[in-house]
TrEMBL record:
InterPro entries tied to this protein: DUF2283 (IPR019270)
Protein name listed in UniProt: DUF2283 domain-containing protein
Pfam family, one: DUF2283
Length: 126
């Protein structure tokens, strides 16, 4: 049985949206980057302990079904990731201002990561 591995990054995250490139990026600060995997229109980054510590989403407005202007107005962000037996479960939680109203979004992404990525869990907030 594999030992449970958890990384608590509450308050240690940051995000950015590139309006021109339509790329949304989130990461855990102060983690040492090791390698990346490309999965569809996402690139996920891992640190030297093989925790998922960064996510880039290309064509983010299309991926999330939201206008670019909404993605540019993000106010809060959290992501939870779990890798279990080669499957990535990613829950994003973010808020954006739409017509002067704060609206919450909680997309869930499930992807096969393959490789030899060990099981792990992460919670990261901004």
């Amino acid at each position: 049985m594999e030992k449970e591995r958890n990384l608590n990054a509450l308050g240690k995250g940051e995000f950015d949206y590139d309006y021109q490139g339509d790329t949304l990026f989130f990461k855990v600060k102060e983690r040492e980057y090791d390698f990346s995997l490309e999965i569809g229109n996402m690139v996920i980054d891992f640190d030297t302990e093989q925790f998922l510590v960064g996510i880039q989403v290309f064509n983010a407005s299309e991926f999330f079904g939201l206008p670019k202007i909404v993605l540019r107005s993000l106010k809060h962000f959290q992501f939870k990731s779990k890798i279990d037996k080669g499957l990535l479960f990613l829950r994003l939680n973010f808020s954006a201002m739409i017509r002067n109203k704060l609206t919450n979004y909680q997309p869930m992404i499930q992807q096969k990561v393959g490789g030899n990525i060990p099981n792990s869990e992460l919670v990261c907030t901004i």
